[in-house]
Amino acid sequence: MSADDPAVREVRTADYHAAGEPFRIVDTADPGLPPAPGDTVAERCATAIGPGGSGTAPRPGALDSVRRLLVQEPRGHAGMYGGFVVPPDDDGAHFGVLFWHKDGYSTACGHGTMALGAWAVDTGRVPAPDEGDVPVRIDVPSGRVAATVHRSGGRTTGVTFRNVAARVGARKVPVATSFGIAEADIAHAGACYASVRARDLGMDVSRAALGDLVRAGREIRTALAGHPATWHPDGPLLSGVYGVILHEELPDTPFGPHQRNVTVFADGQVDRSPCGSGTSARLALLAEDGRIGPEDSLLHESVAGTVFTGRIVPAAAAPGAAPAGLVTEVTGSAYRTGEHRFTLDPHDALGAGFLL
Known about the structure:
The chain has 5 helices and 18 strands.
């Protein structure tokens, strides 16, 4: 076994998907799992990343070894996403979460928030009626978010997540790629996203173009490294381009804009969903363009054909939030795909696994 292999030999998970994007849930309160020290979720995330590490290059550590065990093959895959459930910052939230993916950790995750809301109700962690809505408050590294779980006939029919405030960082930033020059719009919505029109690079948003879209996304993220507009005033944990949203226009619906996107995040990972926090970033940009208001909604499609709907929350319904930016809500669905007990045989030469 290598020095990077985890000391933990068994991990239980609950797996969900939201609009096609996986989310693997691990409760760190389970016996035998390493702790995530810190007084806040943001501090716990910094501990998991480790001194000198970054969100996409964490330092080796006990908790991070569990992430690698679950995200790497043969137990996971390069498109896997998940979260460690941790204590909240205070009694105002039901729990906290550290979001992770194949390369490390993220400060926000809309589809994961939806999955966590469904999980909290499914497991009875948050009591819910057979009919009606129940809020699930979750502390994440970028702040406090809420997942409103919609119930009908004794089952969950959808989840709406209210994100931290979104704001525009910069518009029309020129970016050179191997496909040509593009203009990137930068917005912060729990994480930093760069939006680029796919047609500017001679592409459409389709499965056939996915290889080129991923390549372009990686090039754009690299080109924008260190750009002042990607810096967040709350510090380095929230700074730097996390995802690149390559999008295209579709015919408007009676309720507002209709777009399709592929979000390329971390080191070339593709979001199978329309991207929850990325949808918030798109809403901030559309609002600045005057294309969407509080009475409208964005129909947002993924490259896989799944959908989220997004809207701007009127300032009166989000008191105190307006000075920091726009408050947005994104609605989608989340379904359980399985419960697992992953094990690591100490004689297994593959150890925690590999990524291709």
